[in-house]
Amino acid sequence: MPTSLILIKSDGFYRIPLFEEFNARAVFTTREKDPDFHKMGISGSKLVQPAQVHEDSVFCACKAGAAGEVDALITNYRHLPLAIRTADCLPVFLFDTSHRAIAMIHAGWKGVRKNIILKTIKQMKIKFSTVPSDLIAALGPAIRPCCYEVGDEFRWYFGGFVLPRGNKLYFDIVSAAVNELLGAGVKNGHICDSAICTSCRNDEFFSFRREGLMAGRSLSVMEIL
What we know:
Blueprint (H helix, E strand, L loop, with lengths): L2 E2 L3 E2 L3 E3 L8 E6 L7 H4 L7 E2 L8 E3 L4 E2 L5 E4 L6 E5 L3 E7 L4 E7 L1 H5 L2 H13 L6 E5 L9 E2 L2 H6 L3 E4 L2 E4 L1 H12 L6 E3 L14 H4 L6 E7 L1
Parallel strand pairs: 1-16, 5-7, 6-8, 12-16
Antiparallel strand pairs: 2-3, 3-4, 4-17, 8-11, 9-17, 10-11, 10-12, 13-15, 14-15
């Protein structure tokens, strides 16, 4: 089981202190205010953002701007913040403590089914010589099995991560992501979870399941300082 992720709430966002001892910053926003990058301590003008398409492609960023149709970003450049948008999907923050490289992953069920986390770690190995046991992972706010009702086809996709309750099925996307992290070689003690359900806490976070096409998006950002 992942350990509890310590969070510090500020003005419209949460800070993840876990990475600060390594001179990196990670935050995710709430629905309460538009992102104020200055207050978050993030270089907003240098933001790298993908056009997320629920696939398994990974982009290695070396400059600010759009990253194309990908769902995961990696870099070892300082002051180059990586950002993804979510509204029930799982944001995964990765930090390589030895080579000072980072990743931001948009892990929806389609991406997790296609092993996007494992593929991102493989790209970090190729680009930065990352050793998975050196990685620290943080899992942000996402819809949890208390609320994530799915169809019977998910039993074929995810097996034991689909939980029956009454006559309905619920998907545990966080446990599926943790399983993928462990399978990639990340240490169990290096995985921390926010334990925030975006559907249960829809007053604070956007939830596509609750709001449909009108749902906004929370921003998850990580930067090497």
